[in-house]
Every structure is written in structure tokens, then in C-alpha cells.
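Predict both folds.
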Amino acid sequence: MAIKRKPGPVREKRSDSRERLEQEILEAAKRLFAQRGFGGVSLDHIAREVGTAKQNLLYYFSSKEALYRRVLHGVLDVWLSYMAAITENADNPERALRRYIAGKLRFSREHPFDSRVYANEVISGAPLFAQEIRDRVLPALRADIAVFNQWAEQGVCRKVDAAHLMVILWSSTQAYADFA
């Protein structure tokens, strides 16, 4: 005769639990890096924030730098999706600029820690993330500059130093993220 068991509580799959903890680590790290900068945060700080042991962090990330890079990769993925507004709307300069600025403000408002971590890295000269910025941001920036140059050639706007304009747009909208 088989023994019937009562169904127990639904247990979270181990992989779901690991993914959840990894996300908690990334979010805590992002928040702390945004508030204190890379040098002001230790793995112990992050572990305490998550409520886990430092060894658990090291299971997911081999070092503080590896964790920081992973945070920045996630930030960059989101940021580049907003940065695409200019090239995606190149046929309409007003719409392109409105969407770019609105997207940057939305990014800063909806992802304030992302915005601050990225800004801190860029402002400090990108000591830990320079290659990734060169590989991923510069091509997008060059594409945006080409659009501005195209607009100038078409007589839609005056010829400007588009790289400086992009820095001005980025930094002025970043101020809202930092001081809002």
C-alpha cells in the first residue's frame, strides 16, 4: 500500500533561487557603487547589504572588479537602448532630439543608480571600463555624430561640434539625475 503524502509548500527551484540572489547582489552593488564609488565599497559592504556571506558573492563574481564590470555592462545595455533614439529617428531631427533627451531623463529618473554609476565611471576617466566604453559607446556616439553632420549638410541645422553637443546634452540631463 502506497503512502499518500500531503503536498508540501512549493519550493523554489534552485536555479531560480540562484538567479534571484545574483540579481540582489547586482542591485545592492549598483546602489552602493552609485553612493560611494568603486573605491568606497568592499565586498563585505555588499554582502552585508544583501544579507549573505562574502563567500556567496565570490561564488557569483570572482572579485569586486568583476562585479563592478557586470554592473556597468547591465547599465550600458540600458543606456545604449536610449542612446539609439537619434539614429533611429534620423529622418526627423526634432523627434530625434526630443526622444533622446526624454529617454536620457527617463533613464536617469527610472534608473538613478545606473545613471550615477555610469556617470561616476565616465567622469573619473573610466579607469575600469574604458575598453568597453570604446567598444560599445564610441560606435553609437559616432553614429549620432554622423546624423548631426547629415542634418547640417541638408541645411536642417547649423554645423556644430556634435561630440561636444552630445556631451552637453548628456551632462545637463545627468544633472537632473544627480540633483533631483
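Second protein follows, with its predicted C-alpha cells after the sequence.
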Amino acid sequence: MEISLISPKGTPAILFNDLCGSTTEFKLGFDDEAPSAITCPPSAGVVQRPLNPLSIFDGEEIKGDWKLRFRIKQTGFGSGGRIVKWQLESCGDLVLNAPYLTKNDTFFLPPATRSQIWVETLLAEDVDNSYDEIIYQLVSLPSHGTLYKGTTPLKAGDTFTQQEIEGFAISYEHDGSAARADQFSFILRDTDGAWLGTPQFNIVISEDATVNTENELQIEQLHLYPNPTKDEVTIESTTNVVQVWVYDVQGRLMQQFNNRLPISTIDVRNWAKGIYWIQVQTEKAILTKKLVVQ
């Protein structure tokens, strides 16, 4: 009997040929780096070197249908056999680029309030993955408040993405207790399987903190016009604009400036067409609105 492994490309490697005469049970593995060639009886589950080296498959695509081919070279007396199980393990020098934190700054908010966690305090990037493929998995929860994804409270083991932070879906609500510090920890991973663990996100409860929420400043009190635009955009607020941050759709900070006027104008003639997020800090709150540049 001859047994061969056939790659999806059709390349064969003979594992063994006419092995051990009258042997009725075969239980063994094959590895080019095994210390010995095949010995008899081949029934102890020992990993040994195949007749043809498996390195013959180097450079071939591993995806596809691999086949185990049996060739009966001589029949004899007795009943036929059967395959109980076989499996294939592929190994390689695969180097994964893990996601990394570019922002993990202390998050401030007043007692007994709820505020969005935004990219100026928590931002991760990855050279191989987009924001919707960068995943935060909660390890420990805040002790004095609640994390939310939208309106849903999060629990240990739950996940959210960097894209959801970009979309202002993740928020923290303080429980109103006397505690002035809180935190949660997480594993940062991507869809390729690379990961970073276990960072901690720190929260400080302060009466002097501003709130990143639309509850403190109604949305109709902050205006961007014209929107869409191709030349310039005007930011108008009922209170003075303290600071402005401009982010592209990937969450990258494109521009930042300070101001002490209720109206500000930004020249966008040199901006690429697309969607931007304009984050505005006024004397009362921090708000974010979408801007379309045509």
C-alpha cells in the first residue's frame, strides 16, 4: 500500500510505501523535522519523517482541498480497511502587526453625568486593519459607572470597535457617588488575530470638567453652514467657540485651532472631497457634527 498527500495544486508527496509488511493498524504523524524515519510497527502515534519531504509544498497556497490518496499495490486475504481520522496542520513564519494605541488619555466628566468617549481620549490604529476591524474587548468594568454602546449597557467580555468610537456610540455614565476616579481595562485586537493587552482607560470625575454630550447644548444651538460645502464652512454657536478639532472619516486629526468668538470660518478649498467630523468645544460643552466637502 502507498499513501500520498496531494496539495490543492496537485503536487504529491509519498508519505510511505509498502510499510511494515502485515501491519493492520496505522497511527502516526509526519514531519520533516522528526528525529527518525518510519519504524515498525507504525501504530504508536509517533511523529516521523515521511518518505518524500513535505517541504515539496513550500511556496504553494495552503487554501483549497488537500487529499490523502491510498493506492493498493497488492491485494491479499482478509477484509478491507477504513480511515478513522486524518488531519493536516500547516505552519509558517507569520508575523502579525498588532493594533496599537495612539491615544489613551484620562477622560474627565462632571459627577452624575453621561458623556461620549471620543477619539481625543481613546484612539487605536493598525497598519493592516481599518477602524471597523480594530476591536476593544472589555476585561474589567468601571466600578462607579456604566459603559454603554448606544443605549445598551456593556458587560465584561463585550466588544466595541474603533469605528463605533468614531461614530460616538460609546459613552460612560457616572453613578453619582462620591468616587472621583474610575477605570476599565480591555484587550485590543484586530480581525487578523493580533492583539495588545491589557491597557487601562482612566476616568476622573471633576466638577470643573466639560461634558461631551448634546444635553448641555442643544444641537440647534450649533450650526455648520453651508453644509455640504466646497470653499469654506462657518461654525456658529450661541456661546463662544473655545477650540475646534477636524477629523477625517478615518478618525485622523486633520486640523486644530483655538478661538474665542461665537462664529468661526474654516477654509476647506484644499481639502479632499469626503466626510469630515467637526468637533467643537464651547464654553458649555463639546459637540461633534458631520461636514461634507464636495
